[in-house]
Every structure is written in structure tokens, then in C-alpha cells.
Recover the amino acids of this structure.
């Protein structure tokens, strides 16, 4: 038996949990002892109470935001992977189009969201488009890098065995790309959520949304600060949930063989 | 390890064509795109059933020459013939070439059995047939118990043996090996050498082998090519006329020591010439 503090499960679950509980406790104590007014900075217990009382509305808002984020995430996966496959077909294609992918990446979504929302009549679709734009780049760049990162020795082996283009793609390029692809998924899932929330903020100012960002905006107008924090808490929770799912998927796909998932002494 | 197996004995045509040219390198040289002249003009014929070994200093173009023979590289000048024809005819005539690279070159995501089966999968061989061949090749290299392992669960020497098993499943007519045992300890290397030379004898293989070891070259080869560097070229050729199959008793014989001394003297001669020029 190793000491508890060195056990892997303890370190990954219990240690951050302890920090979290301590921070929340400290926050509660500080608010109580300094008598901080609720409209300035609510106590964790106030937030929990709001979460309990406004549960139906908040849950609906969470569902809306998550739906947009997930739609955008899947769209980004499909489009990003297709673009990556296109890029590895020829250097000429990649060199012609990659700068525009970068352009898409560096343009702040807040700046183009109003345009998209005006251009696309359906709010849902407009929000999904915005979030997709944000989530797309990591998938493109990681998958392209992965499809190119093939062991040259294995390429020679496949050539010696007279492998066809399709065989090389399925049996060599795609498995080689998987670790990079999953790395892209982790980043992209978080970005899809951020994209959805940011787009909702922009759309919400026009009163055309019902997601968590809209709840935050409304709570701000009504000075319902605990509700604002509750919505914020749900966004964070959704982000952590998405990330955890991606980590799990990655472990499922790569766990048996890839260094990143196997662990140093496994 | 490379256990004898008479069930997979040589095809009749291989015995009939003993001594016939397998690969003919006709005034070929290799200049890499970056201007490196890896090989000066080379003329070399690999004869059927011979065990040809390339030996020479690091960077003298042994791997490059082997890749030319495997058609993984094209010669800059000159021509190469395989069984007196172009490379595209090799497969059509039912002949195959297997290459054991300097590194194990395994697919990390595939289990040992899938790695070994790869050439058969790529050739679309039926599952039943390939299963038998994979099991046979794995038992030859002494890895029967490791079929379900991943490469990361194996030691360096075991990975190399997987790579050798993979080259054997296709029952190659020409086996190319680039320092396959270079990373192994003396003990394991000697044992694998003995297994390899027996396999070569039983199956009437044609083998081109690269090594840095004089002992290995003498023990295995029917002919040793001594190469010089800058640019890579053939400096000396030495035949090892000793009966086969060879085993540990040959390694301990005075004849073996004599051949080693002779080969060592030739290598020294080549390096002295190299220093002078
Ligand atoms: N792809 C390449 N591009 C440019 N130069 C290369 C390339 N591959 C090899 N060379 C050069 O060709 C020469 C021969 O290389 P090669 O790998 O054939 O040597 P080697 O005899 O196998 O050496 P070692 O015993 O160390 O494996 C070296 O000078 C090397 O720098
Ligand atoms: Mg080499």
C-alpha cells in the first residue's frame, strides 16, 4: 500500500475537491463576517438557494446553451476533419487555405457575431454558426498535424507491402492522427461552449435568446446577483462536464497504447 | 527462437534457380536532393540463395543501398533489376521482398499479432490462412505468449523479434535486414544469429544483411561486402566458404577465428586507404 497522498485517485479527485470545499467555506465565512450585501457579492448559500428555487428556468437555459454548444461542437468536428483531410491531400491546398483558417481563428467572435446574427434569420442557427467558428480551428490544425505525423518507417513498410492509398489512410494515417485529434477535441469542446455563451450575449442584447448568457444579462438588469452567480456556476459545470467526457473518450480510444493515456509506470 | 519448421520449406523453383541473379545493381549511384552523395557508382549482383552481408563505417550508405534494393529509393543514375525485370513485375511473379528496418517500426496502436499480420492484411489474405502464418512466425521468434500484448509492453529486443516475425509471415523470396540485432546484447544476438542462419538454410532464402559486427558477418554470410565512405562504395569482397548449416561449433572453431582475422585486416586496409585519400 502506498500512502494515501501518493495514490493517483486521491490526487486527481480528492485534492482539488478539498481546495474547492475550503475556498467555498472561506467565501461563506468572509461574506458573513464582513456582512457583505447580497447585491454586491452573494454568499455560496444564497447562490445555492437561488439554484434550488429557480431550478426550472435555469435548467431550461442550461439545456438551450448546451444544445447550441453541442451542435456547434459536432459541426466543428465534421467540418474541421473534412478540411484537415483536404489539407493533407496536397500542400498546395493547405498553403492556399490555411491562412484563412488562421484568419477565422484570430478574429474575435464578439466582432463578427452581430453580423452573423443579422445575416442568419434563425437565432438558433446563428448562435450555432458563431460557436462553430470558435470551435473549428483546433480541430483543423490538430487533425492536419496528426494526419501528417506518420512514422516514416511505417510509411516505408506500407510501401514495401504495396498498400493502396485507402489502406494507408485507414490503417496508418487515421490511427496515427487519433492522439492529435483527441487533443483537438478537448480544446474545441470548451471553445464551443464559450462560443455559444458569447454569441448568446451578443444576441441577448437584442432579447432573442433564452440561454444561460441571457439569464446572466437579465439578472444583471434586475440586480439579481445570486441568480447571476447560479447561471455562471452552471456554465462552469457544463464546461467541466464536456471536458471530462472528452477525457473519457480519449482514454477509451487511446488508453491501451498511447503514452499520454497509459501513464509513466503502467 | 527461430525454431526449425519443415512445414514451411522452400518452394521448388527457388532451389532450381540456385545462383541465378535476384537483384542486379547496374552502375547505380545515389545523390540525395540536398546534394549529399551517399553512394558512388555501384555494381553488385545478389545471387539466389546467398547470404550477403554489408559491413562498413557508419554513414557509408549501407542503409541507402538496402533501400535502393527495396525500391524505397530510386537510384540517381543507373538501373536496378529484380529477377531480371522491373520492380513492378515482382509482385506479379508471385515474389515478395521483406525488409527488417534498423528500428522495430511497429504500429503502437496494434497488438503484436496485428503488427505481424499487417503484410498479410494488406495483401488481403483470408483470416484463417493468415492466423496460421502469424502463429507460426511468432513461435519462430519465441513470442507465442505475447500475441495479445501491445508494443509498449515489450522490451527492445522483443520488439525487434516482432519486426522479424512480420518479415517472415510473407515467406519472402528476398529478405533485407538492416542491423536487426544491433541493439541487442551479445548473448541474445548470438542466439538469434544462429536461428536466422538456420532459417535461411532451411527456407533457401536470399538475404542481404547489414551489420557492424565482424563476428556476425563471418558467422552468417556466404559473402561479405566491405564498404567505404564519402562517397559510399564497395571496397572489398570476401567470400566465406564454410559449410552450412552453421551452428555454435562453427563459432568456436579455428576457421571462424581465421575468417574474423582476415575480415578485420580487410577493414583496417579500407580505413587506412580512406585516411590517405
Ligand atoms: N534522406 C536523406 N537525405 C540526405 N542525406 C541522407 C539521407 N539519408 C541518408 N543520407 C546520407 O547518406 C549517407 C549514408 O547514410 P546511410 O543511412 O545509408 O548510412 P549507413 O551506412 O546506414 O550508416 P549507419 O551504419 O550509421 O546506419 C550519410 O552521409 C547520410 O548523411
Ligand atoms: Mg544504417
Amino acid at each position: 500500500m502506498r500512502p494515501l497522498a501518493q495514490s493517483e485517485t486521491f490526487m486527481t479527485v480528492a485534492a482539488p475537491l478539498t481546495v474547492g470545499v475550503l475556498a467555498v467555506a472561506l467565501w461563506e465565512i468572509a461574506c458573513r463576517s464582513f456582512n457583505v450585501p447580497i447585491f454586491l457579492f452573494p454568499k455560496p448559500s444564497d447562490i445555492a438557494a437561488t439554484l434550488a428555487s429557480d431550478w426550472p428556468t435555469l435548467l431550461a437555459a442550461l439545456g438551450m446553451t448546451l444544445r447550441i454548444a453541442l451542435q456547434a461542437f459536432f459541426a466543428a468536428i465534421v467540418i474541421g476533419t473534412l478540411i484537415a483531410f483536404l489539407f493533407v491531400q496536397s500542400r498546395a491546398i493547405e498553403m492556399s487555405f490555411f491562412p484563412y483558417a488562421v484568419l477565422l481563428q484570430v478574429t474575435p467572435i464578439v466582432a463578427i457575431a452581430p453580423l452573423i446574427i443579422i445575416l442568419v434569420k434563425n437565432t438558433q442557427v446563428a448562435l450555432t454558426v458563431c460557436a462553430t467558428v470558435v470551435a473549428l480551428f483546433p480541430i483543423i490544425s490538430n487533425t492536419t498535424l496528426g494526419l501528417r505525423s506518420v512514422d516514416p518507417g511505417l510509411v516505408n513498410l506500407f510501401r514495401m507491402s504495396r498498400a493502396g492509398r485507402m489502406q494507408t489512410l485507414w490503417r496508418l494515417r487515421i490511427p496515427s492522427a487519433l492522439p492529435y485529434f483527441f487533443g483537438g477535441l478537448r480544446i474545441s469542446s470548451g471553445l464551443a461552449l464559450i462560443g455559444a455563451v458569447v454569441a448568446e450575449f451578443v444576441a441577448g442584447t437584442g432579447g432573442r435568446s433564452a440561454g444561460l448568457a441571457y439569464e446572466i444579462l437579465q439578472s444583471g438588469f434586475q440586480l439579481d446577483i445570486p441568480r447571476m452567480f447560479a447561471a455562471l456556476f452552471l456554465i462552469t459545470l457544463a464546461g467541466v462536464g464536456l471536458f471530462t467526457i472528452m477525457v473519457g473518450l480519449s482514454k477509451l480510444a487511446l488508453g491501451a497504447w498511447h503514452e499520454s493515456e497509459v501513464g509513466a509506470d503502467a | 527462437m527461430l525454431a526449425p519448421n519443415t512445414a514451411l520449406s522452400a518452394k521448388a523453383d527457388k532451389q532450381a534457380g540456385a545462383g541465378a541473379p535476384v537483384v542486379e545493381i547496374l552502375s547505380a549511384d545515389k545523390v540525395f536532393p540536398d546534394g549529399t552523395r551517399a553512394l558512388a557508382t555501384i555494381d553488385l549482383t545478389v545471387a539466389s540463395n546467398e547470404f550477403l552481408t554489408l559491413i562498413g563505417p557508419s554513414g557509408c550508405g549501407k542503409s541507402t543501398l538496402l533501400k535502393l534494393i527495396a525500391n524505397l529509393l530510386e537510384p540517381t543514375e543507373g538501373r536496378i533489376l529484380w529477377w531480371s525485370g522491373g520492380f513492378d513485375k515482382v509482385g506479379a511473379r508471385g515474389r515478395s521482398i521483406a525488409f527488417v528496418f534498423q528500428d522495430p517500426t511497429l504500429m503502437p496502436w496494434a497488438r503484436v499479432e496485428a503488427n505481424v499480420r499487417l503484410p498479410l492484411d494488406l495483401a488481403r489474405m483470408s483470416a484463417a490462412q493468415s492466423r496460421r502464418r502469424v502463429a507460426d512466425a511468432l513461435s519462430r521468434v519465441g513470442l507465442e505468449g505475447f500475441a495479445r500484448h501491445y508494443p509498449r509492453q515489450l522490451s527492445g529486443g522483443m520488439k525487434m523479434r516482432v519486426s522479424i516475425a512480420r518479415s517472415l509471415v510473407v515467406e519472402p523470396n528476398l529478405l533485407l535486414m538492416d542491423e536487426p540485432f544491433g541493439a541487442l546484447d551479445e548473448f541474445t544476438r548470438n542466439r538469434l544469429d544462429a536461428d536466422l542462419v538456420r532459417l535461411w538454410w532451411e527456407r533457401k532464402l536470399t538475404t542481404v544483411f547489414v551489420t557492424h559486427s565482424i563476428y556476425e558477418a563471418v558467422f552468417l554470410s556466404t559473402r561479405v561486402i566491405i564498404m567505404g565512405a564519402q562517397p559510399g562504395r564497395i571496397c572489398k569482397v570476401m567470400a566465406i566458404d564454410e559449410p552450412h548449416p552453421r551452428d555454435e561449433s562453427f563459432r568456436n572453431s579455428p576457421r571462424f577465428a581465421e575468417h574474423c582475422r582476415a575480415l578485420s585486416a580487410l577493414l583496417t586496409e579500407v580505413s587506412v586507404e580512406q585516411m590517405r585519400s
Remarks:
- Residues B 62-63, 102, 178 surround magnesium ion (ligand 2) (CB under 6 Å).
